[in-house]
Write a structure and sequence with these properties.
The complex is a heterodimer of chains A (about 300) and B (about 375). Chain A is of the alpha+beta class. Chain A has one domain: Alpha-Beta Plaits (2-Layer Sandwich), CATH 3.30.70. Chain A is built from nine helices and nine strands. In chain A, strands 8-1-9 form a three-stranded mixed sheet, with helices on one face. Chain A starts with a helix and ends with a helix. Chain B folds into four domains: about 50 residues, no CATH class; about 100 residues, Cytochrome C3 (Alpha-Beta Complex); about 80 residues, Cytochrome C3 (Alpha-Beta Complex); about 70 residues, no CATH class. Helix content of chain B is about 25%, strand content about 5%. In chain B, a hairpin with a 7-residue loop joins strand 3 and strand 4. The longest helix of chain B has 27 residues. Classes of the chains: A alpha+beta (about 300), B mainly alpha (about 375). At the A-B interface, helix 6, strand 8 and helix 7 of A face helix 4 of B. The structure holds iron/sulfur cluster (SF4) (3 copies). One iron/sulfur cluster binds next to helix 3 of chain A.
Chain lengths: ~300, ~375
């Protein structure tokens, strides 16, 4: 905890420093924000909804890989959950929902963080807790996260979830693209378990080629669109389906990174509106410290 | 001279070329394949065969009979599942037989170049992280293949219809129903009335329950070549079954060539009734036994003699009286039935007074000893 606060103070200090620098009117300096790498070799997952059988093994495996509460293994075979659409939450970083499909009768689709190429969440985070990594994952540093929920508001897919059940020090939680597993050369847990390989892991650019090939070879089966290729500037997770997903499964989004993306908001703020930032930071800091006080009071 | 040498050289080159081609033809020709089925380009060479990737449903399928197919195959190749499930016991021959009714071996063995049948793992890599993402990996290939037919018939993904859970998967507070490999219970109809176009009688009344319960037929006796799709078909075929198909099912036991009237009629038939048909009333002692207990020739129930002795004979050729609960002693064994059972009426008490004094009567006195009733 002490560590956290120190980190935060450090961030404050950084802001202070950049404030100083910015007064020298060099907007670029402010870009020394969070890690936000857009590597040519970034990885992705191609989700083929026409293949998914809705077995929800991906949910089970994801929970296992992230020390979440798992239900009985066979409970996942119970399709009653499909009666209403779910959203990823703190215990289910990924959920599988069932939708109607004219061609296939019904279609099951797995949802999780899309790992945007230009992640709104990363830009929105005022403490730089979120980052877009070299391999495409958008991850966060729990120690830095102050639970301010800016990322939740910023995310066009409403992915990050807050640990509301924690009265003290709630953090945001979302799919981390199995960062720890992939670092060690393993596949993301969901990709590894999927019995029908509805999830294909690979370099994003290879996946796009593969997706286009599938659409071309099986035009009778696929809706001619790869969701995620262009949405909000592109996402690491790409979706193939027999129908249009925008509007029902996903929101209809433009091809520009989300609303002017926060990148410009944030960095613009850094660059030109220093006082508000400083104010936010100050307020945030007060929040932070008082919250900690609460905690120590509770301990008493 | 130079020209001569050139010519010879050319001829020899040409013949080598021809020979090579003939050699190729030796393996390809009998297949009667269109080159384009396997080769993308017009002039494939050994170095550049430009082969089509996994030509689904395009190449001649397995070329041996189902009888030669392996019976059961244990599928234990998918490493990532070993922690969760025990190996899958795949009833290969059974599936092969079923496949004959809907597309043959090629529905699964969709890629078979000339020669030996290739294993799934020849094309489908075991490794999920791999170069060629266009071909599903082995685990996906198996599942996609099986799931194409084994779609869930209930609101459940029936993983366990093929997989048993591994012991290390702990299930809390749940009693796992035993894995049912057999078919869900099928409701057997009492009777089916077929509407036909036959001029020998439009209606055929089929007493299904009598056939299975009374005449002791097994399902497989009639349902010989059933295909899952006959019942589980997403797009059912409502065209009328042909008379030949229907007759086939009955002709093992019934004469479908000559005796049309046995089944065909213009009115719904009454169920088989033993006393009216044969004159032998079963209601007394034989009401609850299936036909085959007495009529030993299965499927062709021929008439039997009415005497009890015909079926109930003991080793010495006498009527086996023990089945009634009384084993006759030596003196009574030699008597005719009628000596005690007046007018062969076995429902009435036997009379003893024809031979014995008045004080001897049944059941006070027994003409032998009591034994357990035995119906054989
Ligand atoms: S989907 Fe939302 S949480 Fe995930 S990377 Fe994009 S903006 Fe961030
Ligand atoms: S990539 Fe990892 S964290 Fe994300 S849904 Fe899959 S298993 Fe869960
Ligand atoms: S494991 Fe694969 S098939 Fe099963 S629900 Fe998840 S994505 Fe679909």
């Amino acid at each position: 905890m002490a560590q956290n606060r120190r980190d935060f103070l450090k961030t404050l200090a950084t802001i202070g420093v950049s404030t100083g620098a910015i007064s020298a009117v060099t907007p670029q300096v402010a870009k020394a924000g969070p890690t936000n790498i857009l590597s040519d070799n970034r990885m992705g997952v191609l989700v083929d909804a026409t293949v998914c059988i809705g077995c929800r093994k991906c949910e089970w495996a994801c929970q296992g890989a992230h020390d979440k509460v798992q239900q009985d293994f066979i409970e996942y075979e119970n399709n009653d959950v499909f009666k209403k659409a779910r959203r990823p939450d703190t215990n289910n970083l990924t959920v599988v929902n069932k939708y109607d499909s004219e061609l296939l009768g019904s279609e099951t689709i797995k949802l999780q963080c899309m790992h945007c190429d230009h992640p709104a969440c990363v830009s929105a985070c005022i403490v730089g807790a979120l980052s877009k990594e070299e391999n495409g994952s958008v991850i966060w540093d729990t120690d830095k996260c102050i639970g301010c929920r800016y990322c939740m508001v910023a995310c066009p897919f409403q992915v990050p979830a807050l640990e509301y059940y924690k009265a003290l020090d709630p953090k945001i939680v979302k799919c981390d693209f199995c960062f720890e597993r992939t670092k060690e050369g393993n596949l993301p847990a969901c990709v590894e378990i999927c019995p029908v390989e509805a999830l294909t892991y690979g370099k994003r650019e290879d996946l796009l080629i593969e997706a286009k090939k599938r659409i071309k070879n099986h035009s009778e089966k696929y809706f001619n669109y790869i969701y995620g290729e262009h949405e909000v500037g592109g996402t690491a997770w790409l979706y193939l389906s027999d129908k249009e997903l925008a509007g029902e499964v996903f929101p209809k989004l433009g091809n520009d990174p989300a609303p002017g993306v926060s990148e410009s908001i944030q960095h613009g703020l850094f660059a030109y509106f220093v006082p508000p930032v400083a104010l936010y930071a100050l307020l945030g800091g007060i929040m932070w410290l008082s919250k900690d006080k609460d905690k120590s009071e509770e301990k008493l | 001279m130079k020209i001569m040498i050139k010519f010879l050289l050319l001829v020899s080159l040409w013949s080598v070329g021809i020979f090579a081609q003939i050699n190729n033809l030796r393996t390809h020709a009998p297949m009667k394949l269109d080159c384009k089925k396997c080769h993308l380009c017009d002039t494939p060479t050994k170095a550049e065969p430009c082969l089509v990737m996994c030509p689904r449903n395009k190449i001649e399928p397995v070329r041996h009979s189902v009888e030669e197919a392996p019976v059961d195959i244990v599928i234990n190749e998918v490493d990532s599942e070993k922690d969760l499930y025990t190996p899958v016991n795949f009833s290969h021959k059974l599936h092969a037989k079923m496949s004959l009714m809907s597309g043959g071996c090629a529905i699964c063995h969709h890629y078979n170049p000339p020669g030996k049948i290739v294993k799934c793992s020849t094309c489908h890599e075991k490794n999920r992280e791999r170069e060629n993402l266009s071909i599903p990996d082995l685990k996906a290939a198996y599942h996609r293949q099986c799931m194409a037919c084994h779609t869930s018939w209930e609101e459940k993904s029936e993983c366990r219809s093929c997989h048993e859970l591994n012991d290390n998967i702990k299930i809390s507070n749940t009693i796992l129903p035993k894995l049912e490999k057999s078919h869900a219970k099928i409701k057997i109809p009492d009777k089916i009335v077929y509407q036909t176009d036959s001029d020998k009688g439009e209606l055929v009344t089929y007493f299904h329950r009598d056939h299975t319960k009374l005449f002791d037929l097994k399902c497989m006796d009639c349902h010989k070549q059933e295909n899952c799709e006959n019942c589980h078909n997403q797009k059912p075929d409502f065209s009328k079954p042909q008379p030949d198909d229907l007759h086939d099912k009955c002709s093992d036991c019934h004469d479908t060539e000559g005796k049309c009237y046995v089944c065909h009629s213009n009115v719904e038939k009454k169920p088989f009734n033993h006393p009216t048909k044969t004159g032998f009333n079963l209601s007394n002692f034989h009401s609850n036994i299936s036909c085959i207990t007495c009529h030993k020739t299965k499927n062709r129930f021929t008439g039997l003699k009415k005497e009890c002795k015909n079926c109930h004979k003991d080793n010495e050729g006498y009527f086996n009286h023990s089945i009634t609960g009384i084993m006759l002693d030596e003196t009574h064994k030699d008597l005719d039935c009628e000596d005690c059972h007046v007018k062969n009426n076995y429902m009435k008490r036997p009379t003893c007074s024809d031979c014995h004094e008045e004080d001897i009567s049944f059941p006070k006195n027994i003409p032998g000893e009591k034994v357990r009733k035995n119906h054989d």
